[in-house]
Amino acid sequence: MRRLWFGLWYWLPRRPPWDSGVTPPELERFVVSHPPGRAIDLGCGTGTNVVYLARHGWDAIGVDVVGRAVAKARRRAREAGVTCTFVVGDATRLEVSGPFDLALDIGCLHSIAASGRAGYAAGVARVVRSGGTFLLYAFAPGGPAVGLTADDVRATFADAFDVVGMEEGKGRPSAWYTLVRRLDRAAAFEAVGRESESPRGRRSSTAVPTCRPIRARLTDRHARLHASVHEVRRDEAARGVSSGASW
Ligand SMILES: C[S@@+](CC[C@H](N)C(=O)[O-])C[C@H]1O[C@@H](n2cnc3c(N)ncnc32)[C@H](O)[C@@H]1O
Question: Is the dihedral of CA 102, 107, 112, 117 positive or negative?
Answer without folding.
Answer: positive
